């Protein structure tokens, strides 16, 4: 959870799983810590019946669960629900809870668009790519679209291009970054576009686009040097070494060993998928 948490209450046998950050909490103190330190991630979704049932069944906090249900049934807001849990133990002082309320109130005051955008950004931050894509697409396909500036529209396209890079492919990502840059004129978007062109081996297009967008030779050299450095660093990672071993097995006819390595790697990926999507 990030720091030593002294738990005085009951420890859960089955933890409560918070999907967006891939976090498991085992006690009321850990839950309070999570809520207090992740204000921007809080939403009504977190404080539903699954969490209330977990508090009741796993931590035996029946009175607190009943109070949370009363708040929900009386259309209580996010602040009431969060404070109700923070007051379940003595992990935070009254002053700290007041500071938390002030920060949460600032977030609650955001416009509906700002809340939707922040939620989509948080999905992307924690690599929930499908959820992030859906959230961004809903913004672009909804009433918010009419009020977006060219820069705001381009920034959303930039984030969708990042998602395409992870879920679809480099060609689609490059197209996304190009469209995003033509709207937001953000130098970081242009940089990402040129990097993807380089990584997808579109060398001629890279040079043409750099010239078309007025990228200086020094700036382009800096970008290419950064890519080369990152590639060298990647070669030192365990994943890269596994892929090298797979290729060596393939080239030298060690088929059984190749399948064993591939099987272990796929199982590892499957386990990561289950954790992120369970």
Short summary:
The chain has 278 residues and is an all-alpha fold. The chain has helices spanning 28-37, 49-57, 62-73, 78-86, 94-108, 112-125, 129-141, 150-167, 170-184, 187-199, 203-212, 217-234, 238-251, 255-277, and strands at 16-18, 23-25.
Key features of this structure:
mainly alpha, Serine Threonine Protein Phosphatase 5, Tetratricopeptide repeat, 14 helices, 2 strands, globular, disordered C terminus
Explain what you see.
The chain is mainly α and 278 residues long. It has 3 domains: 16-108, no CATH class; 112-234, Serine Threonine Protein Phosphatase 5, Tetratricopeptide repeat (Alpha Horseshoe); 238-277. Helix content is 69%, strand content 2%. The chain contains 14 helices and 2 strands. It has a two-stranded antiparallel ribbon. The chain starts with 15 loop residues before the first strand and ends with a helix.
Q: Which whole number gives the mean pLDDT? A: 87
Strand content: under 5%
**Level of helix content?**
55-70%
Decide which structural class fits the backbone: mainly alpha
CATH architecture tag of the largest domain: Alpha Horseshoe
Total count of helical runs of at least 4 residues: 14
């Amino acid at each position: 959870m990030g720091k030593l948490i002294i738990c005085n209450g009951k420890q859960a046998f089955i933890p409560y799983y918070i999907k967006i950050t891939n976090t498991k909490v085992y006690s009321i103190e850990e839950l309070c810590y999570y809520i207090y330190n992740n204000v921007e991630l809080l939403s009504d979704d977190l404080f539903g019946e699954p969490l209330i049932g977990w508090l009741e069944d796993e931590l035996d906090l029946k009175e607190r669960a009943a109070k949370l249900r009363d708040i929900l049934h009386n259309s209580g807001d996010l602040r009431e629900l969060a404070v109700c849990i923070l007051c379940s133990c003595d992990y935070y002082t009254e002053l700290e809870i007041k500071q938390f309320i002030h920060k949460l109130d600032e977030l609650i005051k955001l416009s509906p668009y700002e809340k939707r955008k922040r939620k989509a950004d948080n999905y992307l931050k924690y690599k929930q790519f499908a959820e992030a894509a859906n959230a961004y697409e809903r913004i672009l396909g909804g009433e918010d679209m009419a009020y977006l500036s060219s820069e705001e529209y381009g920034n959303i396209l930039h984030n969708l291009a990042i998602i395409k890079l992870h879920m679809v492919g480099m060609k689609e990502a490059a197209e996304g970054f190009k469209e995003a840059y033509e709207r937001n004129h953000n130098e970081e978007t242009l940089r990402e576009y040129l990097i993807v062109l380089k990584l997808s081996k579109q060398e001629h297009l890279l040079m043409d686009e750099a010239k078309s967008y007025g990228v200086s030779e020094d700036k382009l050299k800096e970008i290419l040097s950064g890519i080369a450095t990152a590639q060298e660093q990647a070669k030192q990672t365990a994943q890269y070494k596994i892929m090298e071993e797979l290729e060596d097995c393939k080239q030298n006819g060690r088929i059984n060993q190749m399948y064993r390595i591939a099987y272990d790697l796929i199982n590892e990926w499957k386990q990561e998928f289950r954790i992120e999507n369970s």
